Structures are given as structure tokens and as C-alpha cells.
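Figure 3 (text version): C-alpha cells given as input.
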């Protein structure tokens, strides 16, 4: 590939940027599951804005609504004012998401991003319970601001804070010690033993499937047991569905099949529908205790976000997403499961479900190499896990079957090159 120069970025932008170091080009255009760079090279997108583009780049149905709204001088920014756009979103969210589940959670707009949703969740859980500790899990990822980083397990990311991150305890996630250890029993014993040094936390925060932490899945029974454990001890359950929500695993929430009803739910990324920054924190009504103004934020009244999110829910309601995801899930699973069969030198395991799956390489450095080779062949994919050992595939849910198959062919070619 002939690639454009990155001098402007190298000279002017902070060194902290990471993704562009893997994808060394200047991107210009995107449509559904494909991107084009400035030189006209095409890339297939198996990254989907880290989960923010479940409905594809430039989704036409959503774009039309946004353009119409702007052409009618619709208000874009409104702080906490009541607007048509917000009213429509709230009603639609209640109709499509809350009512079918029999839930009556309040919708809070905590600010524009995932970490805002998590910060609000942690803060209100502490206010409600009067306790300060939050129980989190090995390999958890919840965001990069101080509160959410304190419940994130990755030590490299934690060191970015420059201070001690406190008021969190980490427990083993489901499967952390393999199948033989009952991690819930382990946690219960520590919580109930006054000699353990583990305080009763304000809340437990958990992902049903850990996106950044290596595509580790919690079983339904484990999630159900965790909910029970929390209830019995008056601990709030926070479910962080920032990356796995909005259909990524098939159902709207990644924990739907566990039949749990978390006290607090964090959503962001694809809730904005169009890659627009938006986040919500769902609170059971009895937890909605903040006085007006006790928690606020300038950009939580993002009306373009409401317009896009409303249409995304419309889109969700009218399309049979679950079936689309299942069909695509199977195609990807087959390719991943074949890796160690075709290339015995690549030992490892297939992880994830729905349209977030990956291959965890025993030789950890191979995942990063694979991502580099794939980029050279026009496929965008990232790694995940504490050693970046998992090659992670998460295309938009709307990816056309042909594009998906084309992307997987590129993956196969890249694997072949990796093995050579
Ligand atoms: N929680 C989870 C589970 C995430 O995957 C992420 C982002 N990768 C966040 C929170 C933080 O979201 P944001 O980057 O928008 O702050």
C-alpha cells in the first residue's frame, strides 16, 4: 500500500495517541464496514470505533434524521433543558428497552463518554450506601478517569494516573482460575469473614464480557449468583455495558440472557447511534438520590445524540438484529476455531460471542503482529487482553455478508503470512 505521511500528527499531536501507531495512514471516508484513506486505499473495519459504530459508519437511516433535524434549526446543545429531541429519546428508550423488560430505571445523562457513565455510577453508589469501596474484577476495564481507572485492573493503565488509586478491591472474574475454582464462593467467604480485611463494598462493578480485558465471558449462572450475592449483602450491582451493549453480543444488553436486573447500568459507545458521544447511566428509582445540581455536566444535553440514538433504537426495533448477529457470529467462529487446526503452531483459544470474538494466542506477541499484517492487507483489527494477546474481531453489526467474508479472507491471508 502507498501510505500518506503522518508528519503533522507526529509533530503536533500528543504522544499519547495509540491507535494511529498501528494504523499508519490518514483516513478520509467511511461507509458501513469500510474505510478509505487519503490515498484511496480501502480497509475493512473489524474494529467499529471500539464498539461505538455497531450500526456502521454513516448509517443512512440515522444520517437522514440528523440532516433533517439540523436543516430545521433543531437545537444542538441544551444543557439539562427539556427539548423535543430528548423527550422523543426518553419515550423511545422506555418503549423499546425498559418496558419489554418490565424495568422502571431512571435515565441519567452523565456526560458524553463511557467513563462519565461509570463515574456517575460509582459516585451515586457511594452516596446511596455511605460506603466507599467498590469491588471490581481481574482484567476489568471501566475507563481512564480517576474513579473508573481505580476499578480498572490493568496495571499499565493504572500507572498513567501518577497517584495511588484507592477505594477498590479486585476479585477473580468468572473463569480466572479455570473451571475448577468457584470464584463466587471465594468472594462470599472474603466478604463474610471479619478477618479477611475485605470491607463490604458500596457496589460491585462488572462487565458480562470483558472487552478490553481479553474477551473473558462470565456465565449466566455466575452473573445470577453475583446478583444474589449483592442482594443478600445490600451491595449495589453496577453492570458496565459500555462496550458490549446495544446489540454487540446479540441481545440489546450483553447480560439479557442471565435474567438479571442490575441496580445501575452504564451505556455509551453505540447508544449514540452514529458515533456521536453520548452516555447514559440507568438507575433503579430508589437510587436516584442526587439533588438537582449535585452532579452535572455541560455536554450531557447533546441533542444530535438524542436524534441519532432515537433513530438507532428505531432501527434496532425494526431489523432482526439478533438473527443477523447469529449468522455472522457463526461465520467468524468457524474461521477462528480453524486457526489451530490449520496452523498447529498457533496454539490458543477462541473467545467471545456475538460480534465480538477473538483468538487468544499462547505466544502473546502474535496477536499484535497479526494486526499489523492485516492492516497492510487492508483490514482494521485490534488486540485485547493484559498482554495484548487476543486478536479481536468486532465488525459493525450491519456488516454486509460479502464484506465480512472478504475481511475474513484477509485475516486468513494474514495468518498465512504470520506462519511463514
Ligand atoms: N467501560 C467499558 C467496558 C469500556 O470498554 C470502555 C471503553 N473501552 C469504557 C468503559 C470507557 O469508555 P470511554 O472510552 O468512552 O470513556
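Below: residues designed for each position.
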Amino acid at each position: 500500500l502507498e501510505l500518506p505521511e503522518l508528519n503533522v500528527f507526529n509533530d503536533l499531536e500528543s504522544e499519547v495517541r495509540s491507535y494511529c501507531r498501528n494504523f499508519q495512514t490518514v483516513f478520509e471516508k467511511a461507509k458501513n464496514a469500510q474505510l478509505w484513506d487519503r490515498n484511496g486505499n480501502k480497509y475493512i473495519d473489524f474494529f467499529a470505533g471500539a464498539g461505538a459504530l455497531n450500526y456502521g459508519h454513516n448509517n443512512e437511516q440515522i444520517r437522514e434524521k440528523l440532516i433533517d433535524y439540523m436543516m430545521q434549526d433543531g437545537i444542538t446543545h441544551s444543557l439539562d433543558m427539556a427539548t423535543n429531541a430528548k423527550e422523543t429519546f426518553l419515550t423511545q428508550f422506555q418503549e423499546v428497552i425498559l418496558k419489554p423488560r418490565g424495568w422502571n430505571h431512571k435515565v441519567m445523562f452523565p456526560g458524553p463518554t463511557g467513563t462519565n457513565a461509570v463515574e456517575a455510577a460509582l459516585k451515586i453508589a457511594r452516596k446511596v450506601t455511605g460506603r466507599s469501596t467498590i469491588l471490581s474484577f481481574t482484567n476489568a476495564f471501566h475507563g481512564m478517569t480517576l474513579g473508573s481507572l481505580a476499578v480498572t485492573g490493568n496495571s499499565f493503565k493504572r500507572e498513567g494516573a501518577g497517584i495511588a488509586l484507592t477505594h477498590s478491591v479486585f476479585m477473580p472474574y468468572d473463569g480466572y482460575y479455570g473451571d475448577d475454582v468457584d470464584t463466587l464462593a471465594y468472594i462470599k467467604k472474603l466478604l463474610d469473614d471479619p478477618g479477611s480485611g475485605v470491607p463490604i463494598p458500596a457496589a460491585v462493578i462488572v462487565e458480562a464480557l470483558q472487552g478490553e480485558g481479553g474477551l473473558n465471558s462470565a456465565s449466566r449462572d455466575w452473573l445470577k449468583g453475583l446478583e444474589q450475592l449483592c442482594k443478600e449483602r445490600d451491595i449495589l450491582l453496577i453492570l458496565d455495558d459500555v462496550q458490549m451493549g446495544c446489540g454487540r453480543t446479540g441481545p440489546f444488553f450483553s447480560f439479557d440472557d442471565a435474567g438479571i436486573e442490575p441496580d445501575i447500568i452504564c451505556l455509551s459507545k453505540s447508544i449514540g447511534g452514529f458515533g456521536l458521544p453520548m452516555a447514559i447511566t440507568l438507575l433503579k428509582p430508589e437510587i436516584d438520590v442526587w439533588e438537582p445540581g449535585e452532579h452535572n455536566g455541560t455536554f450531557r444535553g447533546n441533542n444530535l445524540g438524542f436524534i441519532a440514538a432515537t433513530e438507532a433504537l428505531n432501527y434496532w426495533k425494526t431489523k432482526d438484529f439478533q438473527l443477523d448477529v447469529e449468522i455472522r457470529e457463526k461465520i467468524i467462529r468457524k474461521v477462528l476455531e480453524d486457526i489451530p487446526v490449520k496452523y498447529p503452531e498457533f496454539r490458543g483459544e477462541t473467545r467471545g460471542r456475538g460480534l465480538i470474538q477473538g483468538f487468544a494466542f499462547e505466544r502473546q506477541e502474535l496477536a499484535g503482529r497479526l494486526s499489523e499484517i492485516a492492516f497492510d492487507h487492508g483490514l482494521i483489527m485490534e488486540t485485547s487482553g493484559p498482554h495484548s494477546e487476543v486478536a479481536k474481531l468486532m465488525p459493525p453489526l450491519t456488516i454486509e455478508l460479502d464484506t465480512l467474508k472478504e475481511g475474513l479472507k484477509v485475516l486468513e491471508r494474514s495468518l498465512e503470512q504470520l506462519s511463514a
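The chain has a mean pLDDT of 96.
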